[in-house]
Recover the amino acids of this structure.
């Protein structure tokens, strides 16, 4: 695999105006067969439109982080936007906070919170509290907000609802920081973990102590709830101040996503989140059509492929892929110069989790070298002309197909 990482200075020097680009991300797209020798979710799905693009476009498998490394959603999306996720580290809490439009300030420490269920011994029985509804999340965050009032003399605490079982926790005060661990053990049958600081700095130790105090207080406040009687915190971090996507690539960029975290990661790199009604792929494509004249680059994110993979629901993931396939003609009617269809990572339903497996990737353009592949799936992508590429190369390759990169040198 060639050197994968995008040279931002080179992009600034070579960028030029050209056609529009669409990056369509089916979260957790990659999968595995449900039975030995069988087909993956993508290979099982009836996808005549994506199959047609595969025949006239280019296929490959993309690596989100490094070979063999299981990626989180935040790093995987940064990679798709052209940022080496190992160099540009960002905690999920910041993404979640920005995604709901929270006015995050320099020095704030943010975390993505999950309501959870525990038994009488404090052992986790459901890491997502049965995926409670958003209205219940709003009620519970209000309860935590009241319980947090006046807890600290020198720090403010903010607790804001996100969606379903997710919420945002923000700690604001002087001298916060550190490299903080999660409380989520990533498994049922275990107790929540204490937050630890791995930086070795005094501000890290103090911040960990404050967060642990708040978490213990919050769990006491939730103890009488029937399902969401506990919580966990993930991705405790501060805004790192990344270079901005429009400044690097010279494109006005829009983000169309239902879930706040993905609007957050897009906002972090300077994309504009497009508000829209509804939560299905057709509603997202409606928003794409509405915003088409105002932007050069469009990031469109579909979440349910990942959710069904994590739930172990192979058939539902197949159906969601088919739902997205039905929207492809509407995208092509807009006349993009390049269309990327991929995932941020693989989430095989048989594993019920993100995985390290490379992600099926399709790059279509009117000027693409025809692949003549038989369908869009993992095995077809394994033999495609893109090869095994790093996800950070996809935006520059799409820019080239859309006429957005000048010649290098004389």
């Amino acid at each position: 695999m060639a050197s994968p990482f995008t040279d931002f200075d080179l992009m600034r020097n070579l960028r030029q105006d050209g056609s529009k680009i669409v990056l369509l991300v089916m979260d957790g797209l990659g999968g595995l067969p449900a039975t030995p020798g069988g087909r993956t979710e993508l290979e099982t799905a009836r996808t005549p439109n994506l199959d047609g693009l595969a025949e006239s476009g280019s296929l490959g498998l993309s690596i989100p982080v490094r070979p063999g490394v299981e990626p989180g959603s935040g790093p995987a999306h940064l990679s798709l936007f052209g940022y080496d996720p190992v160099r540009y580290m960002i905690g999920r809490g910041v993404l979640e906070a920005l995604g709901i439009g929270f006015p995050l300030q320099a020095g704030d420490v943010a975390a993505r919170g999950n309501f959870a269920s525990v038994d009488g011994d404090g052992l986790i029985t459901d890491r997502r509290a049965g995926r409670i509804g958003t209205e219940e999340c709003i009620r519970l965050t209000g309860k935590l907000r009241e319980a947090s009032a006046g807890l600290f003399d020198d720090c403010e605490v903010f607790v804001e609802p996100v969606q379903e079982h997710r919420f945002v926790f923000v700690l604001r005060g002087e001298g916060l920081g550190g490299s903080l661990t999660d409380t989520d053990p990533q498994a049922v049958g275990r107790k929540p973990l204490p937050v630890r600081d791995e930086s070795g700095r005094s501000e890290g130790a103090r911040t960990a102590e404050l967060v642990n105090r708040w978490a213990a207080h919050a769990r006491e406040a939730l103890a009488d709830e029937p399902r969401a009687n506990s919580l966990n915190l993930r991705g405790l971090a501060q805004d790192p101040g990344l270079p901005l996507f429009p400044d690097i690539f010279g494109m006005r960029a829009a983000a169309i996503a239902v879930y706040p975290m993905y609007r957050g990661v897009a906002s972090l790199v300077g994309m504009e989140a497009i508000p829209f009604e509804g939560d299905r792929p057709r509603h997202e494509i409606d928003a794409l059509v509405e915003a088409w004249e105002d932007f050069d680059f469009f990031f469109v994110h579909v979440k349910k492929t990942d959710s069904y993979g994590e739930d172990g629901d192979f058939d539902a993931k197949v159906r969601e892929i088919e739902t997205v396939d039905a929207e492809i003609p509407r995208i092509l009617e807009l006349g993009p110069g390049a269309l990327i269809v991929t995932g941020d990572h693989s989430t095989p339903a048989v594993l019920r989790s993100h995985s390290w497996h490379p992600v099926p990737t399709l790059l279509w353009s009117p000027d693409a070298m025809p692949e003549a592949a038989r369908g869009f799936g993992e095995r077809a992508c394994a033999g495609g002309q893109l090869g095994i590429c790093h996800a950070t190369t996809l935006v520059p390759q799409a820019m080239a197909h859309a006429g957005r990169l000048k010649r290098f040198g004389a």
Remarks:
- DSSP finds 15 helices and 13 strands in the chain.
- The two ends are 27 Å apart (CA to CA).
- The mean pLDDT is 94.
- Residues 158 and 170 are 5 Å apart (CA to CA).
